[in-house]
UniProtKB/TrEMBL annotation, chain A:
Belongs to the binding-protein-dependent transport system permease family. It comes from the Archaea. Residues 154-344 form the ABC transmembrane type-1 domain. The chain crosses the membrane at residues 61-80, 153-173, 185-209, 283-306, 326-344. This is Binding-protein-dependent transport systems inner membrane component. One of its GO terms (biological process) is transmembrane transport. It is a multi-pass membrane protein. It holds the Pfam family BPD_transp_1. Keywords: Membrane, Transmembrane, Transmembrane helix, Transport.
TrEMBL record, chain B:
Residues 643-659 have a biased composition (Basic and acidic residues). SMART domains: AAA. The lineage of its organism: Archaea, Methanobacteriati, Methanobacteriota, Stenosarchaea group, Halobacteria. GO terms for biological process: peptide transport. This is Oligopeptide/dipeptide ABC transporter ATPase. One of its GO terms (molecular function) is ATP binding. CDD domains: ABC_NikE_OppD_transporters.
Length: 371, 730
C-alpha cells in the first residue's frame, strides 16, 4: 500500500498508513464484503428513497396516475384495436344503457358465459365491454382514440420536460458556479431567449418545419420554457456556492463536477423536479392548445385534435348532449397534469435528508438532535 | 469542608428589602411536535426584583430565550404558555401578564416591559430612517412625539451616539454596535420599567459587548430600570449583574447574588459550568468540559434533569426532582447534594496575572516555515457602475501590508474585532483568497504562481496541504450526505490506493478516536442527527484526512456551547500531535485564543483594521500587552473573579472612541490613532511598522522605540470614553 509521491515534496508526504490507521487491534479492522457494499448502496440510493416516496399519499397517487398513463402509452395500443370511423354507432353516448346494461343484454357492458372480451393477444371470457366512453359524430370510439393518442403524448411530455429542464439546469448551474465570463456569456444567451415571444416563435417554427415526430413537437414547445428556470437556478447556486461545505470541498481540491453533483445539485433537486412536472404540464397544455388551434399538423390521434373535433364538429360546448366528447380528453389532460404535480411534490421529501434518514435501514438512531 | 447552612446565611435580608416586580409562578411552555410534547420551560418559579440587574445564564437550548418570551407573553405559536406571571407596577394593581388581552398586551409591551433581541441587524426596517422608527413607535402608543423624541435624543447621547447623525441615518449606514445601541434606546423610549435583553450582544465584538454592558449599568441607574439580561456568556454578566440565575434543562437550577454564585456555587451544574468556561484569568489545568449533552426537551430525564451528567448523582436524583434548597432569602439551588458539591467539584477563579513564566526573550523556532506571507494586501473594490459614473471610489482594505510566517506544528491565533480582516487574512494564508499585492508562499513556492502553472510544485499538493474548518458546524457539512460519505470524499480523492474496506477502517477508527462511539452508528448518520459539537468534530476529522500542513480554524469553536469549547480545543491539540499539522486559529474571543495558544506554546496575533498590530507568544500578549489596542482588547475580556471584575468595571476603557472607523475610509497614519489614548501628532502622519521589543513580541507602535520622534510630538487632545459604573452599595 505504498503511495508514490511524484511531485517531489520531501518534507510533505501523504499521511502514512501508520498515521491513518494507528496501531490497530485485529478486531478494529473492518472488512466489507462486496455484498455488504451492494446492500448499502441499494439501501441508500433505492430502497430508502422508495420507502420515503411511498410513505406519502401524494407520491402514491402521483405514481399510480403516472404508471397508469405509462401503461396506456406502452401496452395500451397493443391491447386496444386502433380507432377508425364508423367502428361504433355515430354519437354513441358513454356508458350506453346505464347501470341496467350490467344485467341486460346489449349496452356498454355484457356479463355472461357466452361473452368474451378480446384485447389484442389476450382474451377475457365472461365479460364484454363495448365503447364505454362513447363515440364521436363519425362513430370513432373515444376510449380507443384516447389510448392510441397516449404514446405520442408521453413522448412529447418527456422530451419537452427533459429538454427544457435540462437546458435550464446546465445553463443555470454552470453560470452560477463558474461565475465570471462564463456566467456573463450564458446569461447573455438566456436573456435573449427570454425576450423572444414564445407563441409567435412557435407558430413560425411549426410553419417552417411542421414537425411530425412527437418528441420533436415536445422539444419545439419547450424551446422557450427554460430561461426563467435557468435564471432561478443560477441565483440559488450563487448562494449555495458560498456555503461553508462547498468551500470546504473546494479547499479539499475536489473537481468541480464532483462538487456540482454531490454538494450543489441535491439541494436543487426538489426545485428542479417540481419544474420538471410543470414543464411536462406545459407541454401537454401547449400541444393540446396548438392542435386545437390547428397550428400543428393533424397527423395521428391526439387529445388536442379530439377536443378540436368535439368543439368544431359536435359543438360540444353548445350542444350539451355532446359534452362528453370534449370531457374525456379534457379529463385525460387534467388527470395527467395532476398526477405529475402530486408526484413532484411528494418527491420533494425524497431529497430531504431528515425524512430519508427516518426510512433508511442502516441509519443509527432515529432521534434527532436538538441544538 | 462541608458547607453548613449558617455559613451561607450571612447575607440574610428580610423579605421587605426586596420589592418584587415580576413574579413567575409555575410557568410551562410546551410545543406539540410530531414526536411528542416538547417542554421548553418546565414549571419555572422565579421572582425578579425591582431595580436590579438580573443575569440569566444558560447554554443554548436551555430554555432561556423562552423565559424571556414568556415574560412578555410573547411565546410564538404553536407554543402554549401556562402558569402565572404577575407584574407589579410601581403604583396600581398587579396584573397577570398571561391573561392580558391582545390589545392590553400591545400597551403592556414597550410601556411596562420592553425587549431587545439578539438580531439588531434585522430589527430595523431598512427603508426607514431611524427617526421614523422612533416616531412610529411613539405614535403607535399615542404619546407626545416632541417630548418623547427629546427623551430619545438624551438616550442616544447617553449611549455614546451622535443623536443628530443617528436619527438621520438609514439602518444600513450604522455599524452593528451602533445599531444595537440604537435599538436599546428605541426600546427605552417609552420609559418601561423592565428591560428584557436576550443575548443582545452575542453578535458583537468583545469591546462593543463590554462597552454596551457598562452603558447598561449607567442607564439602569439613571432611569431606575429593572434589567433582565440573558446570555450564554457567564463572564460577561458576572461582573455587572446584581443577581445571577443559572438555567439548565428548562428550569432554574440556581440563583443568588452574583458574587456568591460565582465564588461558591452550590449546584453541581453551575460549578461545572464555571470550570468549563474558557477565561483569560483561570489556570489552564483547571478548565474542564462538562461530560455529556444537554437533554432533549421532548424526552427530559426523570428526576433531576442534570443527573445523567452529574458526578454526584445518586438513586434519589434519578427519581425525584429536587426542590430549591434555600440557603437564604435570595439564594437557592435545586440539588439534593448541595452540601457535597463544593468538595466534589472544585474550581478556582483567576490566577495572579503576575505569576507567569518568563517567555524566552527571543522567540525563535527551529521548525521549518510552512506558509509565509510577504507584505500582503487584500483590497476589495466596492465600486459599482453608478459610482464609477460619478467618479466615486470605495476600496475596502481588508488586509494591509501584512507579513507573517507560520511554522510547522505551530498554533497561531489571530484576534480582532469583526471586520478587522482576520478571516480574509486567514483565507489568503490558505490560498483561497488571492492577494492584491504581496506574495503568499508555501514552503518557498508562491502559491498563486503554482496555481497559474508556473511553479515547481503541483498546485494540487499545495491545495491539499492547506485546509479549513469553518465557524458554523451547521453549514460546513453537506446536509444530504452521511458522515461516512463526507469523510470518504478526501480519502477517495487523495488516497485512491485505499479500498472501501480500508477507508471504512480509517473512518471508524478516527470517529472512535474523537469520541464518537459506536462508529458504525455515527458513520451512517446525516448531519442533522448530530449535535453541534459532533458536527464540528466530523469537520475537523475531514480536514485532517487530507493530511494538511496547516488548518485554518475560522472561529471554529465560537458556535459551540460554552461547556463544549474546551473539549473541542483539547481535541484539536490532541489531533495536532497525531497528524503533525499547524493551526491558524481565528477568533474574536481572547479567552479561546488564549486557551489554545497557551496550551501549545503558540503565538497570538492582534489585528486591527486590516493591520497586524502585535504578534508574539501567547503568555506575553495576554499578560503583558504592549500595543494600546491589545490593552483595550484585554480590558474588554472580563475576568471571572468577582473582585477583579469589579475592579475592571471601575476602570475606564483605555480608548477614546467606541466605534471603529469606516474601513473604506481608514484614518491616516497609524490605523488606531483615532481611538488610541496615547496618540500624538506624529501618529496621524506616519504608519508604524512591526518592530522588536524587549520581550519576544513584535509591536507596531512608536512607543516601543525610545528614540522615536513620537516622544517629542504633541499629544492629540480629546477626552477618553467614560463607561465607569459607580460601584454599588450592596
Amino acid at each position: 500500500m505504498s503511495h508514490t509521491n511524484e511531485s517531489g515534496f520531501e518534507t510533505d508526504e501523504q499521511l502514512t498508513d501508520e498515521q491513518l490507521f494507528g496501531h490497530l487491534a485485529e478486531d478494529d479492522i473492518v472488512s466489507l464484503s462486496r455484498r455488504e457494499r451492494f446492500e448499502r448502496i441499494l439501501d441508500a440510493y433505492f430502497l430508502a428513497p422508495g420507502r420515503v416516496a411511498w410513505d406519502d399519499w401524494r407520491t402514491r397517487i402521483g405514481i399510480l396516475v403516472v404508471t397508469l398513463f405509462v401503461f396506456f402509452g406502452t401496452i395500451g395500443p397493443r391491447l386496444v384495436t386502433p380507432p377508425a370511423t364508423n367502428q361504433a354507432p355515430n354519437n354513441l353516448q358513454p356508458f350506453d344503457g346505464g347501470v341496467a346494461a350490467l344485467w341486460e343484454e346489449g349496452g356498454w357492458i355484457d356479463i355472461g358465459v357466452d361473452h368474451q372480451l378480446s384485447m389484442g393477444p389476450i382474451s377475457v371470457p365472461g365479460i364484454d365491454i363495448r365503447y364505454p366512453l362513447g363515440a364521436d359524430n363519425y362513430g370513432t370510439p373515444i376510449g380507443r382514440n384516447l389510448i392510441h393518442a397516449t404514446p405520442d403524448m408521453l413522448e412529447m411530455v418527456v422530451a419537452g420536460a427533459i429538454v427544457s429542464v435540462g437546458l435550464a439546469a446546465i445553463f443555470g448551474i454552470t453560470a452560477g458556479y463558474k461565475g465570471g465570463k462564463t456566467d456573463e456569456f450564458l446569461m447573455y444567451i438566456t436573456d435573449i431567449v427570454m425576450t423572444m415571444p414564445g407563441l409567435p416563435l412557435l407558430i413560425v417554427i411549426v410553419a417552417i418545419w411542421s414537425p411530425r415526430q412527437a418528441w420533436l413537437i415536445g422539444v419545439v414547445l419547450a424551446i422557450d420554457a427554460w430561461p426563467g428556470l435557468a435564471r432561478a437556478l443560477r441565483s440559488q447556486v450563487l448562494t449555495l456556492r458560498e456555503e461553508s461545505y462547498v468551500e470546504a470541498s473546494r479547499t479539499m481540491g475536489l473537481p468541480s463536477r464532483t462538487i456540482l453533483a454531490r454538494d450543489i445539485s441535491p439541494q436543487l433537486m426538489p426545485y428542479i423536479l417540481i419544474n420538471f412536472a410543470n414543464a411536462g404540464r406545459q407541454v401537454v397544455f401547449g400541444s393540446v392548445a396548438l392542435y386545437f388551434l390547428g397550428v400543428l399538423p393533424l397527423t395521428t390521434a391526439n387529445w388536442g385534435i379530439m377536443m378540436d373535433t368535439a368543439y368544431s364538429e359536435a359543438h360540444a360546448l353548445v350542444n350539451l348532449s355532446n359534452f362528453y366528447q370534449i370531457f374525456w380528453p379534457m379529463a385525460a389532460v387534467v388527470v395527467l397534469s395532476f398526477g405529475l404535480i402530486l408526484f413532484a411534490q411528494g418527491m420533494d421529501r425524497v431529497f430531504n435528508p431528515r425524512i430519508r434518514a427516518r426510512h433508511a435501514k442502516k441509519v443509527g438512531s432515529d432521534e434527532e438532535q436538538i441544538n | 469542608m462541608t458547607r453548613t447552612e449558617t455559613e451561607l446565611e450571612i447575607t440574610h435580608d428580610d423579605r421587605s428589602s426586596h420589592d418584587v416586580i415580576l413574579e413567575v409562578r409555575d410557568v410551562d411552555v410546551t410545543f406539540d411536535m410530531e414526536r411528542g410534547t416538547s417542554r421548553v420551560l418546565d414549571g419555572v418559579r422565579f421572582d425578579v426584583h425591582r431595580d436590579e440587574m438580573l443575569g440569566i445564564v444558560g447554554e443554548s437550548g436551555s430554555g432561556k430565550s423562552m423565559f424571556a418570551s414568556a415574560l412578555l407573553n410573547a411565546v410564538v405559536d404553536p407554543g402554549q404558555t401556562s402558569g402565572e406571571i404577575i407584574y407589579h407596577p410601581p403604583d396600581g394593581e398587579p396584573v397577570d401578564v398571561l391573561s392580558l388581552s391582545e390589545s392590553q398586551l400591545e400597551r403592556f409591551r414597550w410601556e411596562e416591559i420592553s425587549m431587545v433581541f439578539q438580531g439588531a441587524m434585522s430589527s430595523f426596517n431598512p427603508t426607514m430612517k431611524i427617526r421614523e422608527h422612533f416616531e412610529e413607535t411613539i405614535r403607535a402608543h399615542g404619546e407626545d412625539i416632541e417630548e418623547r423624541m427629546e427623551h430619545g435624543w438624551q438616550l442616544l447621547a447617553d449611549l455614546y451616539l451622535d443623536p443628530e447623525r443617528v436619527f438621520d441615518s438609514y439602518p444600513h449606514e450604522l455599524s452593528g454596535g451602533m445599531k444595537q445601541r440604537t435599538l436599546i434606546a428605541l426600546s427605552l423610549i417609552l420609559e418601561p420599567k423592565v428591560l428584557v435583553m436576550d443575548e443582545p450582544t452575542a453578535a458583537l465584538d468583545l469591546l462593543m459587548q463590554r462597552s454596551i454592558m457598562s452603558l447598561l449599568g449607567n442607564l439602569q441607574e439613571e432611569y431606575d430600570l429593572t434589567i433582565v439580561f440573558i446570555t450564554h456568556d457567564l463572564p460577561l454578566v458576572a461582573g455587572l449583574a446584581d443577581r445571577l440565575a443559572v438555567m439548565y434543562a428548562f428550569e432554574f437550577v440556581e440563583y443568588g447574588p452574583s458574587e456568591q454564585v460565582i465564588r461558591d456555587a452550590a449546584h453541581p451544574y453551575t460549578r461545572a459550568l464555571l470550570k468549563s468556561v474558557p477565561s483569560v484569568d483561570a489556570s489552564l489545568e483547571d478548565m474542564h468540559p462538562i461530560e455529556g449533552e444537554s437533554p432533549d426537551p421532548v424526552d427530559a430525564p426523570s428526576g433531576c434533569s442534570y443527573h445523567p451528567r452529574c458526578p454526584l448523582a445518586t438513586v434519589e436524583c434519578t427519581q425525584a426532582d429536587p426542590d430549591y434548597h434555600e440557603f437564604s432569602e435570595e439564594r437557592g439551588a435545586a440539588c439534593f447534594h448541595w452540601e457535597q458539591s463544593g468538595d466534589e467539584i472544585e474550581y478556582a477563579l483567576g490566577v495572579d496575572p503576575d505569576e507567569f513564566p518568563e517567555s524566552t526573550a527571543a522567540f525563535e523556532s527551529e521548525e521549518e516555515t510552512v506558509v509565509s506571507l510577504d507584505d500582503v494586501d487584500v483590497h476589495f473594490e466596492q465600486t459599482g457602475l453608478i459610482d464609477e459614473l460619478f467618479g466615486k471610489e470605495s476600496v475596502v482594505r481588508a488586509v494591509n501590508d501584512v507579513s507573517i510566517e507560520l511554522r510547522e506544528n505551530e498554533v497561531v491565533a489571530l484576534v480582532g474585532e469583526s471586520g478587522c480582516g482576520k478571516t480574509t487574512l486567514g483565507k489568503t494564508v490558505i490560498g483561497l483568497q488571492e492577494p492584491t499585492a504581496g506574495s503568499v508562499s508555501y514552503r518557498g513556492q508562491d502559491v498563486w504562481e503554482a496555481k497559474a502553472g508556473s511553479g515547481d510544485y503541483e498546485f494540487d499538493d499545495i491545495r491539499r496541504a492547506l485546509q479549513i474548518v469553518h465557524q458554523d458546524p451547521g453549514s460546513s457539512l453537506n446536509s444530504s450526505r452521511t458522515v461516512r460519505a463526507s469523510l470518504s470524499a478526501p480519502l477517495k480523492r487523495w488516497r485512491p490506493d485505499l479500498g472501501p474496506s480500508d477507508r471504512e477502517t480509517v473512518i471508524y477508527n478516527l470517529l472512535k478516536r474523537v469520541g464518537m462511539k459506536p462508529p458504525e452508528d455515527y458513520a451512517a448518520r446525516f448531519p442533522h442527527q448530530l449535535s453541534g459539537g459532533e458536527k464540528q468534530r466530523v469537520v475537523l476529522v475531514r480536514a485532517l484526512l487530507m493530511s494538511p500542513d496547516l488548518i485554518l480554524a475560522d472561529e471554529a469553536v465560537s458556535a459551540l456551547d460554552v461547556s463544549l469549547r474546551v473539549e473541542m480545543m483539547d481535541l484539536m491539540l490532541d489531533l495536532q500531535e497525531m497528524f503533525d499539522t499547524s493551526y491558524l486559529f481565528i477568533s474574536h474571543d481572547f479567552s479561546n485564543a488564549r486557551y489554545l495558544t497557551e496550551k501549545s506554546d503558540g503565538r497570538i496575533g492582534i489585528m486591527y483594521l486590516g493591520n497586524l498590530v502585535e504578534i508574539g507568544p501567547a503568555q506575553e500578549i495576554i499578560h503583558d500587552p504592549k500595543h494600546p489596542y491589545t490593552k483595550v482588547l484585554r480590558w474588554a475580556t472580563p475576568p471571572l473573579d468577582p473582585d477583579e471584575a469589579k475592579e475592571a468595571n471601575a476602570t475606564d476603557p483605555p480608548i477614546r472612541e467606541i466605534d471603529i472607523p469606516d474601513p473604506t475610509d481608514p484614518p491616516s497614519g497609524c490605523p488606531f490613532q483615532t481611538r488610541c489614548p496615547d496618540a500624538r501628532e506624529v501618529c496621524t502622519r506616519e504608519v508604524p511598522e512591526l518592530q522588536d521589543t524587549e520581550g519576544a513580541a513584535r509591536v507596531a507602535c512608536f512607543r516601543e522605540d525610545d528614540d522615536h520622534e513620537y516622544w517629542a510630538s504633541e499629544p492629540v487632545e480629546s477626552d477618553t470614553v467614560s463607561l465607569k459604573t459607580e460601584s454599588k452599595a450592596d
